[in-house]
Amino acid sequence: MKKTHPEWYTEDLLNGPDFQVNLRIPRDTLPKKLNMKRDWTEEQKEEFRQSGEKEARDEEREKAADVIAHKVANLKRVVLGAPMEHCIHSCMEEKQSFAPCQINYRPDESYWVFQSDKDCITVYFQLNFHTKMEQELANTLCIELKNTKQCKPGVSIQYFPQELGVPETIKEQFKEAANLKSNPGMISMKLEKKVHLARGYD
């Protein structure tokens, strides 16, 4: 948050176990409205209408609001992607210092991040689609992923159909995940420093 939203980040923490990060949007980033004043004369009001100042200010406010909305929309991506970013930095430094973690990003879907080697990151994604059509489409796409290794060297995407259960790597580190259900299954993606991260994280 300090890197992605520095002007919003604050050290002032709200009380309670549900708050880990607090952000404060500065009001001065949004230009003030321009309106006619009550004590203006008709000539002043007409001059203001013709000047286009209000329209120009409204456009400034709209652009500033778009910037704020875009940053708010990115919050979820920043928070959920933080473990992967941390792990990638460990891979870039080739220090096997990242502890495996599980992120529950939906009620019935989680993902797991592992530093599978000193310069490799592997992420497992649990998939759960709820309609028959979605499940069949997802299954077809996941089956196609099996051949990605042959298509491009270095790319490592694996598909674990639901009948195979939870991958052993996850079960070894997270015992409570052993009985998780997924439909059509799980996928994993592996990134290597020498192949995918050679140009740096950014």
Q: Order of strands side by side in the largest beta sheet?
A: 3-4-5-7-6
Q: State the domain count.
A: 2
Q: Give the count of helical stretches.
A: 6
Low-confidence stretches: none
CATH fold field value of the largest domain = Yope Regulator, Chain: A
Structural class: alpha+beta
Task: State the helical fraction.
Answer: 25-40%
**What coarse outline follows from CA principal-axis ratios?**
elongated
Instruction: Name the beta content range.
Output: 15-25%
From the coordinates shown, what is the CATH architecture of the largest domain? 2-Layer Sandwich
How many whole angstroms does the radius of gyration measure? Answer: 25 Å
Kindly report how far apart the N and C termini lie: 16 Å
Q: Please write the string of helix (H) and strand (E) elements.
A: EEHHHEEEHHEHE
Using the coordinates above, name the CATH class of the largest domain: Alpha Beta
Q: What is the typical, i.e. mean, pLDDT?
A: 85
The main β sheet shows up as: 5 strands, antiparallel
Attribute tags:
202 residues; alpha+beta; two-stranded antiparallel sheet; 6 helices; 36% helix
